[in-house]
Model the fold of this input.
Amino acid sequence: MKKIIAVVVMAFVTVALQAQFSKATLQASGLTCAMCSKAVKVALENVPFVQEVKVNIKSQEYTIMFKENNNADFDALKKAVEDAGFSVASLKVTGNFSGVNVQKDKHLQLDGKNFHFISSSDKVLNGEQTIRIVDKDFLSAKDYKKYSAATKMECIKTGKAGDCCVKDGMHSEERVYHVII
Amino acid sequence: MKNLRILILSLVFAFSAIAVNAQGPIPNIEDYRLDFTVVGMKGDSIKLSSLKGKVFLLDFWASWCAPCRYANKYLVKFYNKYKDKGFEILSVSLDDEKNAWKKAVAKDKITWMQGFDKGGWDSFAAMKWQVDALPSSFLINKNGDVVGINLEKDDLEKKIKELLELK
Done:
Protein backbone atom coordinates (compact mmCIF):
# COMPACT_ATOMS: atom_id res chain seq x y z
CA MET A 1 0.00 0.00 0.00
CA LYS A 2 2.74 2.38 1.05
CA LYS A 3 4.54 1.65 -2.19
CA ILE A 4 1.50 2.52 -4.26
CA ILE A 5 1.05 5.80 -2.41
CA ALA A 6 4.71 6.60 -2.92
CA VAL A 7 4.47 5.91 -6.64
CA VAL A 8 1.32 8.01 -6.98
CA VAL A 9 2.84 10.86 -5.00
CA MET A 10 6.01 10.70 -7.05
CA ALA A 11 4.05 10.76 -10.29
CA PHE A 12 2.27 13.90 -9.14
CA VAL A 13 5.47 15.53 -7.95
CA THR A 14 7.15 14.84 -11.29
CA VAL A 15 4.28 16.38 -13.18
CA ALA A 16 4.04 19.39 -10.91
CA LEU A 17 7.78 20.10 -10.93
CA GLN A 18 8.33 20.32 -14.66
CA ALA A 19 11.98 20.43 -13.75
CA GLN A 20 14.22 18.45 -11.47
CA PHE A 21 17.68 19.79 -10.78
CA SER A 22 20.41 17.19 -10.66
CA LYS A 23 23.72 19.00 -10.55
CA ALA A 24 25.55 22.31 -10.55
CA THR A 25 28.89 23.66 -11.57
CA LEU A 26 30.37 26.32 -9.38
CA GLN A 27 33.39 28.57 -9.55
CA ALA A 28 34.74 30.14 -6.39
CA SER A 29 36.98 33.13 -6.08
CA GLY A 30 38.80 34.90 -3.32
CA LEU A 31 41.93 36.74 -2.36
CA THR A 32 43.88 33.49 -2.20
CA CYS A 33 43.92 30.56 -4.60
CA ALA A 34 40.47 28.98 -4.08
CA MET A 35 41.45 25.68 -5.64
CA CYS A 36 44.46 25.42 -3.29
CA SER A 37 42.15 25.06 -0.32
CA LYS A 38 40.06 22.05 0.52
CA ALA A 39 37.63 24.32 2.39
CA VAL A 40 35.19 24.98 -0.47
CA LYS A 41 34.93 21.30 -1.39
CA VAL A 42 34.33 20.26 2.21
CA ALA A 43 31.77 23.02 2.75
CA LEU A 44 29.84 22.00 -0.35
CA GLU A 45 29.96 18.33 0.63
CA ASN A 46 28.34 19.23 3.94
CA VAL A 47 25.27 20.79 2.28
CA PRO A 48 22.44 18.30 3.00
CA PHE A 49 21.16 17.79 -0.56
CA VAL A 50 24.64 17.38 -2.02
CA GLN A 51 25.63 13.83 -2.96
CA GLU A 52 29.14 14.38 -4.28
CA VAL A 53 31.56 17.17 -5.18
CA LYS A 54 34.19 16.79 -7.86
CA VAL A 55 37.00 19.25 -8.45
CA ASN A 56 37.80 20.05 -12.05
CA ILE A 57 41.16 21.77 -12.08
CA LYS A 58 41.21 22.58 -15.80
CA SER A 59 38.00 24.57 -15.74
CA GLN A 60 38.58 25.68 -12.12
CA GLU A 61 35.13 24.37 -11.31
CA TYR A 62 33.42 22.26 -8.70
CA THR A 63 30.88 19.82 -10.06
CA ILE A 64 28.19 19.29 -7.47
CA MET A 65 25.93 16.26 -7.82
CA PHE A 66 22.62 16.52 -6.00
CA LYS A 67 20.88 13.70 -4.19
CA GLU A 68 17.89 12.19 -5.97
CA ASN A 69 14.55 13.85 -5.32
CA ASN A 70 16.39 16.66 -3.63
CA ASN A 71 14.94 20.00 -2.93
CA ALA A 72 18.03 21.86 -4.04
CA ASP A 73 18.51 25.14 -2.25
CA PHE A 74 20.91 27.18 -4.35
CA ASP A 75 21.29 29.81 -1.64
CA ALA A 76 22.71 27.08 0.62
CA LEU A 77 25.48 26.46 -1.94
CA LYS A 78 26.37 30.15 -1.94
CA LYS A 79 26.35 30.26 1.86
CA ALA A 80 28.65 27.22 2.05
CA VAL A 81 31.19 28.87 -0.24
CA GLU A 82 31.02 32.13 1.71
CA ASP A 83 31.35 30.37 5.06
CA ALA A 84 34.50 28.73 3.70
CA GLY A 85 35.92 32.21 3.13
CA PHE A 86 35.37 32.54 -0.60
CA SER A 87 32.73 33.93 -2.90
CA VAL A 88 30.80 32.51 -5.82
CA ALA A 89 32.05 33.61 -9.23
CA SER A 90 29.66 31.44 -11.19
CA LEU A 91 26.86 28.99 -10.44
CA LYS A 92 25.17 27.03 -13.19
CA VAL A 93 22.50 24.48 -12.39
CA THR A 94 21.45 21.63 -14.61
CA GLY A 95 18.04 20.03 -14.55
CA ASN A 96 15.70 17.92 -16.55
CA PHE A 97 12.90 20.06 -17.97
CA SER A 98 9.60 18.96 -19.40
CA GLY A 99 7.65 21.49 -21.38
CA VAL A 100 8.63 24.53 -19.36
CA ASN A 101 7.36 27.66 -21.00
CA VAL A 102 9.90 30.43 -20.59
CA GLN A 103 8.98 34.03 -21.26
CA LYS A 104 11.16 37.05 -20.95
CA ASP A 105 10.79 38.85 -17.60
CA LYS A 106 8.08 36.45 -16.40
CA HIS A 107 8.24 34.48 -13.19
CA LEU A 108 7.65 30.81 -13.07
CA GLN A 109 7.78 28.14 -10.41
CA LEU A 110 9.97 25.09 -10.92
CA ASP A 111 10.92 22.44 -8.40
CA GLY A 112 9.31 24.53 -5.65
CA LYS A 113 11.38 27.59 -6.45
CA ASN A 114 10.58 30.83 -8.24
CA PHE A 115 12.58 31.68 -11.32
CA HIS A 116 12.82 34.83 -13.32
CA PHE A 117 14.35 34.32 -16.75
CA ILE A 118 15.95 37.55 -17.85
CA SER A 119 16.97 38.42 -21.37
CA SER A 120 15.52 35.23 -22.75
CA SER A 121 13.34 34.96 -25.79
CA ASP A 122 10.09 33.03 -25.37
CA LYS A 123 10.68 29.31 -25.66
CA VAL A 124 9.74 25.91 -24.35
CA LEU A 125 12.44 24.04 -22.47
CA ASN A 126 12.67 20.28 -22.72
CA GLY A 127 15.27 17.73 -21.69
CA GLU A 128 18.51 18.56 -19.94
CA GLN A 129 19.09 22.28 -19.63
CA THR A 130 21.62 24.39 -17.80
CA ILE A 131 20.77 27.79 -16.42
CA ARG A 132 23.02 30.31 -14.75
CA ILE A 133 22.01 32.18 -11.61
CA VAL A 134 22.75 35.88 -11.94
CA ASP A 135 21.55 37.15 -8.56
CA LYS A 136 23.89 39.40 -6.61
CA ASP A 137 26.81 37.48 -5.03
CA PHE A 138 26.35 34.56 -7.44
CA LEU A 139 28.78 36.14 -9.88
CA SER A 140 31.37 38.88 -10.00
CA ALA A 141 30.19 42.44 -9.33
CA LYS A 142 31.03 43.32 -12.89
CA ASP A 143 28.94 40.51 -14.36
CA TYR A 144 26.10 41.28 -11.97
CA LYS A 145 25.98 44.83 -13.20
CA LYS A 146 25.76 43.60 -16.76
CA TYR A 147 22.91 41.17 -16.16
CA SER A 148 20.94 43.31 -13.74
CA ALA A 149 20.75 45.98 -16.42
CA ALA A 150 18.83 43.50 -18.57
CA THR A 151 15.63 43.90 -16.58
CA LYS A 152 13.90 46.93 -15.16
CA MET A 153 12.20 44.88 -12.48
CA GLU A 154 13.18 45.60 -8.89
CA CYS A 155 13.43 41.96 -7.83
CA ILE A 156 16.88 41.56 -9.46
CA LYS A 157 18.33 43.77 -6.75
CA THR A 158 16.96 41.90 -3.75
CA GLY A 159 16.31 38.40 -5.01
CA LYS A 160 12.89 38.74 -3.37
CA ALA A 161 9.56 39.11 -5.13
CA GLY A 162 8.99 42.55 -3.63
CA ASP A 163 6.26 44.82 -4.92
CA CYS A 164 6.98 44.26 -8.57
CA CYS A 165 6.07 40.61 -8.59
CA VAL A 166 3.10 40.39 -6.24
CA LYS A 167 0.82 40.52 -9.23
CA ASP A 168 2.12 37.09 -10.21
CA GLY A 169 0.56 35.76 -7.01
CA MET A 170 3.75 35.76 -4.96
CA HIS A 171 4.41 37.06 -1.47
CA SER A 172 6.78 40.00 -1.44
CA GLU A 173 9.25 38.07 0.75
CA GLU A 174 9.43 35.06 -1.56
CA ARG A 175 12.81 34.19 -3.00
CA VAL A 176 13.16 34.62 -6.75
CA TYR A 177 16.21 33.23 -8.56
CA HIS A 178 17.20 35.34 -11.51
CA VAL A 179 18.58 33.20 -14.27
CA ILE A 180 19.78 33.25 -17.82
CA ILE A 181 19.82 30.41 -20.27
CA MET B 1 28.40 5.39 4.56
CA LYS B 2 28.97 9.11 4.72
CA ASN B 3 28.51 9.00 8.48
CA LEU B 4 31.11 6.28 8.76
CA ARG B 5 33.53 8.37 6.75
CA ILE B 6 32.91 11.39 8.94
CA LEU B 7 33.44 9.24 12.03
CA ILE B 8 36.73 7.86 10.70
CA LEU B 9 37.85 11.33 9.67
CA SER B 10 37.07 12.81 13.05
CA LEU B 11 38.92 9.96 14.74
CA VAL B 12 41.94 10.51 12.52
CA PHE B 13 41.66 14.21 13.17
CA ALA B 14 41.43 13.70 16.92
CA PHE B 15 44.52 11.49 16.81
CA SER B 16 46.57 13.86 14.71
CA ALA B 17 45.41 16.81 16.79
CA ILE B 18 46.87 15.04 19.79
CA ALA B 19 49.97 14.13 17.82
CA VAL B 20 50.70 17.66 16.63
CA ASN B 21 50.14 19.08 20.08
CA ALA B 22 53.46 19.99 21.60
CA GLN B 23 52.66 18.18 24.82
CA GLY B 24 51.66 14.95 23.12
CA PRO B 25 53.80 12.44 21.25
CA ILE B 26 55.56 13.86 18.20
CA PRO B 27 54.25 12.44 14.90
CA ASN B 28 56.75 10.03 13.34
CA ILE B 29 56.90 8.77 9.75
CA GLU B 30 57.11 5.17 10.96
CA ASP B 31 53.64 5.47 12.47
CA TYR B 32 51.36 3.34 10.27
CA ARG B 33 48.77 6.10 10.41
CA LEU B 34 51.16 8.42 8.56
CA ASP B 35 53.12 6.05 6.34
CA PHE B 36 52.23 5.76 2.65
CA THR B 37 53.59 4.67 -0.70
CA VAL B 38 53.40 6.85 -3.80
CA VAL B 39 54.34 6.33 -7.44
CA GLY B 40 57.59 7.98 -8.53
CA MET B 41 58.45 9.64 -11.84
CA LYS B 42 59.65 6.39 -13.40
CA GLY B 43 56.78 4.32 -12.12
CA ASP B 44 58.81 3.21 -9.11
CA SER B 45 57.25 3.20 -5.66
CA ILE B 46 58.40 5.45 -2.86
CA LYS B 47 57.61 4.51 0.72
CA LEU B 48 57.67 7.38 3.16
CA SER B 49 59.12 5.44 6.08
CA SER B 50 62.05 4.29 3.91
CA LEU B 51 63.38 7.84 4.19
CA LYS B 52 64.05 7.46 7.88
CA GLY B 53 67.54 8.57 8.84
CA LYS B 54 67.50 11.61 6.56
CA VAL B 55 66.62 15.21 7.22
CA PHE B 56 63.86 15.77 4.69
CA LEU B 57 60.90 17.85 3.69
CA LEU B 58 57.61 16.17 2.87
CA ASP B 59 55.95 18.59 0.49
CA PHE B 60 52.40 18.39 -0.84
CA TRP B 61 51.77 20.38 -4.01
CA ALA B 62 50.11 20.37 -7.44
CA SER B 63 51.03 21.78 -10.84
CA TRP B 64 47.93 24.02 -10.82
CA CYS B 65 48.74 25.54 -7.43
CA ALA B 66 50.43 28.88 -8.03
CA PRO B 67 51.80 29.35 -4.48
CA CYS B 68 53.31 25.85 -4.73
CA ARG B 69 55.10 26.76 -7.93
CA TYR B 70 56.46 29.84 -6.23
CA ALA B 71 57.72 27.71 -3.31
CA ASN B 72 59.43 25.35 -5.79
CA LYS B 73 61.72 28.21 -6.77
CA TYR B 74 63.33 28.42 -3.36
CA LEU B 75 63.06 24.68 -2.72
CA VAL B 76 65.24 24.13 -5.80
CA LYS B 77 67.83 26.49 -4.31
CA PHE B 78 67.75 24.83 -0.90
CA TYR B 79 67.92 21.36 -2.41
CA ASN B 80 70.97 22.15 -4.53
CA LYS B 81 72.62 23.86 -1.59
CA TYR B 82 72.01 21.16 1.02
CA LYS B 83 71.59 17.83 -0.80
CA ASP B 84 75.26 16.93 -0.35
CA LYS B 85 74.93 17.65 3.34
CA GLY B 86 72.17 15.08 3.70
CA PHE B 87 69.02 17.03 2.92
CA GLU B 88 66.28 15.38 0.91
CA ILE B 89 62.83 16.35 -0.35
CA LEU B 90 59.86 14.15 -1.10
CA SER B 91 57.17 15.97 -3.02
CA VAL B 92 53.73 14.46 -3.35
CA SER B 93 51.59 15.84 -6.15
CA LEU B 94 47.82 15.97 -5.87
CA ASP B 95 47.50 16.47 -9.62
CA ASP B 96 44.80 14.60 -11.46
CA GLU B 97 46.82 14.20 -14.59
CA LYS B 98 50.23 12.61 -14.69
CA ASN B 99 51.26 14.68 -17.71
CA ALA B 100 50.54 18.00 -16.03
CA TRP B 101 52.59 16.82 -13.05
CA LYS B 102 55.54 15.66 -15.14
CA LYS B 103 55.54 18.85 -17.18
CA ALA B 104 55.61 20.99 -14.04
CA VAL B 105 58.43 18.90 -12.55
CA ALA B 106 60.49 19.47 -15.71
CA LYS B 107 59.62 23.15 -15.93
CA ASP B 108 60.50 23.87 -12.30
CA LYS B 109 63.73 21.84 -12.70
CA ILE B 110 62.92 19.54 -9.81
CA THR B 111 65.45 16.76 -9.35
CA TRP B 112 64.38 15.44 -5.97
CA MET B 113 61.99 12.58 -5.25
CA GLN B 114 58.59 13.16 -6.77
CA GLY B 115 55.56 11.08 -5.95
CA PHE B 116 52.14 11.05 -7.54
CA ASP B 117 49.07 10.24 -5.53
CA LYS B 118 45.92 10.23 -7.61
CA GLY B 119 42.71 11.41 -6.04
CA GLY B 120 43.41 15.06 -5.29
CA TRP B 121 42.28 16.03 -1.80
CA ASP B 122 40.97 12.52 -1.24
CA SER B 123 44.24 10.82 -2.09
CA PHE B 124 45.56 8.42 0.52
CA ALA B 125 48.66 10.42 1.46
CA ALA B 126 46.80 13.75 1.65
CA MET B 127 44.12 12.22 3.87
CA LYS B 128 46.68 10.65 6.19
CA TRP B 129 48.53 13.92 6.61
CA GLN B 130 45.33 15.98 6.92
CA VAL B 131 46.31 18.18 4.00
CA ASP B 132 43.58 20.79 3.55
CA ALA B 133 45.48 23.45 1.66
CA LEU B 134 48.34 23.58 -0.81
CA PRO B 135 51.21 23.93 -0.40
CA SER B 136 51.57 21.97 2.83
CA SER B 137 54.94 20.84 4.06
CA PHE B 138 56.40 18.89 6.95
CA LEU B 139 60.05 19.00 7.95
CA ILE B 140 61.30 15.66 9.29
CA ASN B 141 64.44 15.05 11.36
CA LYS B 142 66.77 12.02 11.30
CA ASN B 143 64.56 10.20 13.81
CA GLY B 144 61.60 10.52 11.48
CA ASP B 145 59.89 13.05 13.73
CA VAL B 146 57.89 15.96 12.33
CA VAL B 147 59.69 19.04 13.61
CA GLY B 148 58.26 21.79 11.41
CA ILE B 149 54.97 22.37 9.62
CA ASN B 150 54.51 24.83 6.75
CA LEU B 151 57.75 26.66 7.40
CA GLU B 152 58.34 29.33 4.80
CA LYS B 153 61.51 30.28 2.99
CA ASP B 154 63.85 31.78 5.61
CA ASP B 155 62.44 29.88 8.57
CA LEU B 156 62.70 26.68 6.58
CA GLU B 157 66.34 27.23 5.66
CA LYS B 158 67.21 28.11 9.24
CA LYS B 159 65.65 24.90 10.50
CA ILE B 160 67.25 22.76 7.78
CA LYS B 161 70.67 24.09 8.77
CA GLU B 162 69.92 23.43 12.41
CA LEU B 163 68.87 19.83 11.72
CA LEU B 164 71.91 19.20 9.51
CA GLU B 165 74.05 20.70 12.27
CA LEU B 166 75.53 23.26 9.90
CA LYS B 167 76.71 26.68 10.98
The first helix of chain B runs from residue 2 to 20. The two ends of chain B are 53 Å apart (CA to CA).
